[in-house]
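[step 3/7] fold_predict: job queued, chain A
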Amino acid sequence: MRVRQAVTEDAERVAEIHVRSWQRAYHGLLPQPLLDGLRPAQRVPQWQRLIQQADWPRRATLVAEDEGDVVGFTGLCPTRDDDDDPEQVGEVAAIYALPAVWGRGIGRGLMAESMRTLREAGFSSAGLWVLEGNARAIRFYERMGWQQDGAVKDAVIGGLEVRELRYRCVFR
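[step 4/7] structure written:
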């Protein structure tokens, strides 16, 4: 597995991974009609824009390749949280891998490189948000050294009220 900066040509594959992982990871947590209605083509413009707007290393999309195929990605940026300083705190805004490669170390590789990149950008810590009840993701983050910091936010996704929990990682 190799992790590298995303290029614009990766946007379609990133959008596909985003949708396929949502459909699997959020089954039972988000409304099924919402998940069934997701289409990668709807997310391609967003990912093209985000990849083009990269400001390495503070704002970037990383992709994981396995045998030359992009199978996962992560989106990094300064924190978007009002209670944190975007000069000091980075954010893992997204981290997803194709369900077919779950359990093969792709996520660990992506997260390790994401944390290295955020440290390189000068951030002293980073945060991420996880959907309450997403036990698989929570176990993964905690194994990677992230800890819940007590912050929560409520949102409505597909007409369903959900709660997200913030996790934090302090760089040493």
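[step 5/7] annotate
Residues 2-170 form a domain with the Aminopeptidase fold (CATH 3.40.630.30).
The beta strands are 2-5, 60-66, 69-78, 89-97, 125-131, 147-157, 160-170.
exit 0
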